[in-house]
């Protein structure tokens, strides 16, 4: 490290291995150049998207090995190469508690998804009658004929843009915790506060969190906010097919106990 007596700036020299060192030749850290990714952007995008998808499936209750989620970028490239074959990126899993609930994830190429692509995918799926859900990860727009072909499927089909999967939104530190209530817990909540389902605060089925967990219309989630200012704040939201007004909100604060707050909006 060399100090400039005029500007006060500090300078470092480097050894042949890219490690920064002071003027006495002592290494003390890795140079930033060692963090440069020499691999392809394509492989990096597939790695991030596939990891998020694996985390998503596990959070939905599907049997996903931790070893799969913990795969590093280097290991991913060693297995799939710098330009991965999208057919090898497919994910097939069964639910941990419901073995009849099976999901298949298919990655599509960079071109627009046309109806012939959807038909090709459907012809490759074996035992369609046992499949509960198909998730398509696309990188371009999907044509209207392709969308209509998807709607005719006997199983539910979800579509995600690969750019939406580069980051797992549930890992964001400011994101509140979402917990899906069982049918019994939902009925208990409505009975406790003498409410109807339509009176609960709403969450659009198109909401990013709702899509991440694959929430269906009518399901209720418990949303817990935590911060140094409000400490803990709990509310419940009912998933609906559209975003609209809500009639009342049930809130909870740990310092006051569980309380009911009613608001009517026009």
From TrEMBL:
Report the record's Gene Ontology biological process terms. transcription by RNA polymerase II; transcription elongation by RNA polymerase I; tRNA transcription by RNA polymerase III
- Give the residue spans that cross the bilayer: none
Instruction: Give start and end of each RNA polymerase subunit H/Rpb5 C-terminal domain.
Output: 167-239
Question: Where mainly found?
Answer: nucleus
InterPro entries reported in the protein's UniProt record: Arch_Rpo5/euc_Rpb5 (IPR014381), RNA_pol_Rpb5_N (IPR005571), RNA_pol_Rpb5_N_sf (IPR036710), RNA_pol_subH/Rpb5_C (IPR000783), RPB5-like_sf (IPR035913)
RNA polymerase Rpb5 N-terminal domain residues are 42-124
User: Which domain of life, per UniProt?
Assistant: Eukaryota
As recorded in UniProt, coiled-coil segments are none
State the GO CC annotations.
nuclear DNA-directed RNA polymerase complex
GO molecular function terms attached to this record: DNA binding; DNA-directed RNA polymerase activity
Location in the cell reads: Nucleus
Report keywords, A-Z. Answer: Nucleus
To which protein family does this belong?
A: Belongs to the archaeal Rpo5/eukaryotic RPB5 RNA polymerase subunit family.
The record's PANTHER family line, in alphabetical order, gives: DNA-DIRECTED RNA POLYMERASE V SUBUNIT 5A, DNA-DIRECTED RNA POLYMERASES I, II, AND III SUBUNIT RPABC1
UniProt name for this protein: DNA-directed RNA polymerase V subunit 5A
Q: What organism is the protein native to?
A: Anisodus acutangulus
């Amino acid at each position: 490290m060399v100090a400039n007596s005029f500007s006060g700036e500090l300078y470092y020299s480097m050894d042949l291995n890219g490690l920064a060192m002071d003027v006495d030749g002592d290494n003390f850290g890795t140079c930033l150049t060692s963090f440069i990714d020499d691999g392809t952007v394509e492989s990096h995008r597939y790695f991030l998207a596939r990891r998020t998808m694996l985390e998503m499936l596990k959070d939905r209750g599907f049997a996903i090995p931790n070893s799969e989620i913990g795969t590093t970028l280097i290991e991913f490239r060693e297995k799939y190469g710098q330009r991965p074959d999208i057919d090898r990126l497919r994910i097939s899993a069964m639910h941990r508690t419901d073995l009849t609930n099976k999901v298949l994830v298919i990655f599509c190429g960079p071109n627009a998804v046309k109806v012939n692509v959807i038909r090709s995918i459907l012809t490759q799926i074996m035992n369609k009658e046992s499949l509960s859900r198909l998730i398509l990860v696309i990188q371009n727009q999907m044509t209207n004929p392709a969308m209509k072909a998807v709607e005719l499927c006997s199983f539910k089909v979800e579509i995600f843009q690969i750019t939406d999967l580069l980051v797992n939104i549930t890992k964001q530190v400011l994101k509140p915790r979402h917990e899906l209530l069982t049918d019994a817990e939902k009925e208990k909540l409505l009975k406790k506060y003498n409410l109807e389902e339509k009176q609960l605060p709403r969450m659009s089925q198109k909401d990013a969190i709702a899509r991440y967990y694959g929430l269906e219309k009518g399901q209720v989630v418990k949303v817990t906010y935590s911060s140094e200012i409000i400490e803990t704040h709990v509310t419940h939201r009912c998933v609906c097919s559209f975003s609209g007004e809500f009639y009342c909100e049930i809130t909870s604060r740990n310092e006051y106990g569980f309380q009911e707050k009613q608001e009517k909006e026009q």
